[in-house]
Write a structure and sequence with these properties.
The chain is of the alpha/beta class and 427 residues long. It contains 12 helices and 20 strands. The protein has helices at 16-23, 76-88, 108-120, 133-142, 155-176, 185-199, 206-215, 249-254, 287-295, 314-324, 363-368, 394-407, and strands spanning 3-8, 29-32, 41-45, 48-52, 65-68, 73-74, 97-100, 104-105, 203-204, 220-223, 263-269, 272-274, 308-310, 312-313, 328-332, 342-351, 354-356, 370-377, 411-415, 423-424. A 10-stranded mixed β-sheet has the order 9-7-5-2-10-1-11-15-19-20, sandwiched between helices. The longest helix is centred in the middle third of the chain and has 22 residues, at 155-176. The chain is globular, with a radius of gyration of 22 Å. Bound molecules: inosinic acid. Inosinic acid (IMP) is lined by residues 11-13, 38-40, 126-129, 131, 133-134, 225-226, 230, 239, 241-242, 275-276.
Length: 427
């Protein structure tokens, strides 16, 4: 029995999808356990580009079962659209996709509420993806206004609950936004019932399925969305997403005990990016930041927003690696740094005259730190054709050694380009 987990160690967008995609042929089941359609994976293979949001990357491999577990929040029409669009590109979606009946459902009022709450923060928004993720998780924790996937199949109680909830949401939203156009419970009910019908063949008790899969010795692969620094409990609160996007969410989000995980891979970019608000100590506002954004195509998969770019922050990444408890690292997008004459890695922070290698727990403290850098020579050579560690220039190998030393975990995988083949595996 083996279970592998792939988690991001930074603020998301670490290219986890590529690692998950690569590992799927050694696994039987791929599990998404948190987040929703705020996530975006781009997977390249066979010259084709596949954009995935709610669907686990396992969907692209014949014979692999993809599971959307209870900890995920689901916008049913977004899921139906994604299934249809991936089918159009020739990918089979049938009994290879299982959706938990325990997962919570995102409704239009979640998106409306998020819009109001974000604009109320005026010039200090969280910078969310506006997909209703946080407001849906809030209702899940609050229980009184929550609806789960399984509820969609109990027509009369679903309709009654929706009537009550929509009336209350309309009252709240109209109080906050006087010209708010009230939502219509009946049309939401109709739309969601249609989607539920389309999804019915996939909806099961995924927890029971995963336990049976473990008993049968099937190999599980857990695919995180976002990154450890966006974790609701351990990230840069409140500039986080509303789920446990670190490895901490695997157990609660899937129902599979964490002790079953035999390999934890932490994915980190060779530099750092962030979308949305919140402190980012190593952010570059200069032409180097723009160079990284251009070469790395650092624009959001879901929202198209330009990502904020900066040097690798080993303090933050080491913290992420410790919270998620990684065995090894996958260092992504190393090729993006190829043309830079010199590279910097933050090795510590200076704060209030002192030096620390600990990641601050309060964002105000984090926004005041000054990163202390180690400068390394660049290699100024195209490395996109490298397939073995020995193919890399010595400066690139030294960079990887420094990352391993500072983050505190061995580098096991290096990515030098978007394609499956552009990977150095199992170093
Ligand atoms: P939410 O998840 O839409 O609530 O957004 C909360 C924060 O998480 C914002 O800063 C988003 O930009 C960020 N975020 C959400 N999903 C992703 C992702 O897949 N990659 C990177 N950042 C994300």
């Amino acid at each position: 029995m083996s279970a592998t987990a792939v988690v991001g160690l930074q603020w998301g967008d670490e290219a986890k999808g590529k690692i998950v995609d690569l590992l799927t042929d050694q696994h039987d089941v791929v599990v998404r356990y948190q987040g929703g359609n705020n996530a975006g994976h781009t997977v390249m293979f066979g010259g084709n580009k596949y954009k995935l949001s709610l669907l686990p990357a396992g969907i692209l491999r014949p014979g692999v079962v993809s599971v959307i577990a209870p900890g995920v929040v689901i916008n049913p029409s977004a899921l139906v659209d994604e299934i249809e669009s991936i089918r159009k590109s020739g990918v089979h979606v049938g009994d290879n996709l299982l959706v938990s009946d325990r997962a919570h459902v995102i409704f239009p009022y979640h998106i409306e509420e998020e819009r109001v709450l974000e604009s109320a923060r005026k010039d200090n928004p969280i910078g969310t993806t506006m997909r209703g993720i946080g407001t849906c998780y809030r209702d899940k924790a609050g229980r009184t206004h929550a609806i789960r996937v399984g509820d969609l199949y109990h027509a009369s109680s679903f309709r009654q609950r929706l009537d009550e909830i929509v009336a209350q949401k309309n009252a709240i939203l109209t109080a906050l936004v006087p010209d708010f156009r009230p939502l219509n419970a009946r049309s939401i009910y109709d739309e969601y019932s249609r989607c539920a019908e389309r999804l019915a063949e996939h909806v099961v008790d995924t927890t029971r399925y995963l336990h049976a899969a473990l008993d049968q010795g099937r190999r599980l692969l857990f695919e995180a969305a976002q990154g450890t620094l966006l974790d609701i409990d351990h990230g840069t609160f409140p500039y986080v997403t509303s789920s446990n996007s670190s490895a901490c969410g695997i157990h609660s989000g899937s129902g599979v005990p964490e002790r079953k995980i035999t390999r934890m891979i932490g994915v980190a970019k060779a530099y750092t990016t962030r979308v949305g608000g919140g402190p980012f100590p190593t952010e570059l506002h200069d032409e180097i930041g723009q160079h990284i954004r251009d070469v790395g195509h650092e624009y959001g998969t879901v929202t198209g927003r330009p990502r904020r770019c900066g040097w690798l922050d080993a303090v933050a990444t080491r913290y992420g690696a410790r919270v998620s408890g990684v065995d090894g690292l996958a260092v992504m997008l190393l090729d993006v740094l190829a043309q830079l004459p010199e590279l910097q890695i933050a090795v510590a922070y200076e704060i209030d005259g002192g030096r620390t290698v600990e990641f601050p727990s309060h964002v105000e403290t984090l926004s005041r730190v000054r990163p202390l850098y180690r400068t390394l020579p660049g290699w100024r050579k195209d490395i996109s054709g490298a397939r073995r560690l020995a193919d890399l220039p010595p400066q690139a190998r030294a960079y990887l050694d420094t990352v391993a030393e500072l983050v505190g975990a061995p580098v096991q995988i290096v990515s030098v380009g978007p394609d499956r083949e552009q990977t150095i595996l199992d170093l």
